[in-house]
Amino acid sequence: MAYDAVVLAGGAARRLDGVDKPMLxxxxxxxxxxxxxxxxxxxxxxxxxxxxxxDRDVAWCREDPPGGGPVAGLGAALPLTTAGTVxxxxxxxxxxxxxxDPLLDALPTHGVALLARDGRRNHLAAAWRRDTLVNALARVxxxxxxxxxxxxxxxxxxxxxxxxxxxxxxTWADWATLRDRRTS
Length: 184
Description:
- The protein has helices at residues 31-38, 70-77, 100-105, 130-138, 148-151, 172-183; strands at residues 4-8, 25-26, 29-30, 45-48, 59-61, 85-90, 111-115, 121-129, 157-161.
- The chain is of the alpha/beta class.
- The protein has a 7-stranded mixed β-sheet with strand order 5-4-1-6-8-7-9, with helices on both faces.
- The longest helix is centred in the C-terminal third of the chain and has 12 residues, at 172-183.
- The chain is globular.
């Protein structure tokens, strides 16, 4: 299936003392590189956030204003996409690669997201029909600070059970767990 990918890499990482979280290394590579490699088959890979020194072919953009959150980031990136399917990922998912095919295979009319072990749907580990995202963004007056859950309320979203592919890195303890699990 042809798809484009949007990787959201612009957060403040407050719980990580403001470190450049996407560039934290797991198994010797920045988490951002793991995520980009997971979507290497995408027609276009767009990274939303500050440019970083990586050796991957990507388009870069920034949300307006920077730090406006994931919906603002998606709003900045979506005009750079053309495929009918868009995979949307956070940049702190170093183990996401095995999830891409199941997400694409399960894509219904609107979208499909990983369902975490705690029962929460992860909208930042998901595949969407592009027109679903375009229409949802058009209904939002101010993208800054808007939530993905609110943006996609009303969309039919299928779920793929997540055995840990979507484990993210929000704290130093998360990073230690991911780093240790991926290198052992």
